[in-house]
Amino acid sequence: MNEIKSVDELKELWARVPPANGIEPLPTALTFDDVLLVPQHSTVLPHQVDVSTRLTRRIRLNIPLVSAAMDTVTESRLAIAMAQQGGLGVIHKNLSVDEQASEVDRVKRSESGMIVNPITLSPANRIYEALDLMRKYRISGVPITEDGSKEGRLCGILTNRDLRFETNVNRPIADVMTHEPLFTVPVGTTLDAA
Asked: Is 180 a domain residue?
């Protein structure tokens, strides 16, 4: 059998097929497996292409992709990934109001891999408090500041690794947090530079 190279060739082939018992052939229908796009030479380079689009008068997306607001598709993880690539993830409504707010909060707290509005604790807080926050916000670490505020001086970090073998959750965070080495960078530092 000869390879069909175009839709016109396919239509021509169908036109030659005689109808069976007076039944007309079905119109042409193609699936992804029926079509092969062969790459060709182009003088346009990928970095020269602008695929951005306007979602509203004030909102511009860098890529024209918006995820479906379905419970099997979009929650905070996909919404964060979509935002990092320039698209938009729409959180579905099959959640309670509090759960929806929590999902949106997770997305807003994550920006290009950097946490811009971190949840912080003080060294005096108890391990169980940190575990509750880590579970609630699905985070793996909490910055520890001297006074527990976002503006306070960073004195450590508490991560899942610090808590892996901890059995006494009533201990203060200061007993198990990582004190050194802590590497910090000024606000505005790019991920590549960090």
From this structure: no
What is the distance in angstroms between the CA of the first residue and the CA of the last residue of the chain? 58
If DSSP codes are grouped into helix, strand and coil, which group holds residue 130? helix
Cβ distance 168 to 127 under 8 Å? yes
High-pLDDT (> 90) share of the chain, %: 45
Domain carrying residue 84 = 52-114
Residue with tokens 């985070």: 139
**Numbers of helices and strands, H then E, in the chain:** 5, 6
Query: Which parts of the chain are beta strand (E)?
Result: 53-54, 60-61, 110-111, 114-115, 141-145, 154-159
Cβ neighbours for 46, distance < 8 A, ≥ 6 positions apart: none
Q: How many domains does the chain have?
A: 2
Angstrom distance (rounded) from CA 154 to CA 118: 12
Are 155 and 145 in contact by the 8 Å Cβ rule? The answer is yes
Unique residue bearing structure tokens 């408090």: 129
pTM recorded for the entire structure: 0.49
Say what the pLDDT of residue 65 is.
92
